[in-house]
Amino acid sequence: MRVNGSDEDPRVAELRTAVARLRRELAAHPAEFTDRGIAEDELAALAEMAYGGAPEIPRMRRSLLLVAGAIGSVSALAAGLAGVRGAVEMFGEPGKG
């Protein structure tokens, strides 16, 4: 699964895009909430994995769960979170994708 002759896996590109979008949305969100730091840290970890090119699926899923738990009740971030979830799910099950 490569993009137009490049060496980049399109799943990684999608993850990178989705994480960057949610990080921007979170940074622009004016309200402070208890677990914001957790969300920011885990999004940074996901971004690092995406830029590394070969994300570890179990670690990605763990980060996704932590981000979802941290910002899941912030409706303004729901679309961005869904994008990250979709990008992570493109990698399939651990050991299968």
Biggest pleated sheet? none
What is the distance, rounded to the nearest whole angstrom, between the alpha carbons of the first and last residues? Answer: 11 Å
Structural class estimated from helices and strands = mainly alpha
Which word captures the global form?
globular
SSE pattern, N- to C-terminal: HHHH
Question: What's the tally of helices?
Answer: 4
Radius of gyration: 13 Å
What share of the residues lie within helices?
A: 55-70%
- Strand % is under 5%
- Ranges with pLDDT <50 over ≥5 residues? none
Mean pLDDT: 89
How many distinct beta strands? Answer: 0
Describe it for me?
The mean pLDDT is 89. The chain has helices at residues 10-28, 36-52, 57-71, 78-89. The chain is an all-alpha fold and 97 residues long. It is built from 4 helices and no strands. The longest helix is centred in the N-terminal third of the chain and has 19 residues, at 10-28. The relative contact order is 0.20.
Provide a compact summary of the structure:
The chain is an all-alpha fold.
Features:
mainly alpha; about 0% strand
Topology:
Layout: H1 10-28, H2 36-52, H3 57-71, H4 78-89
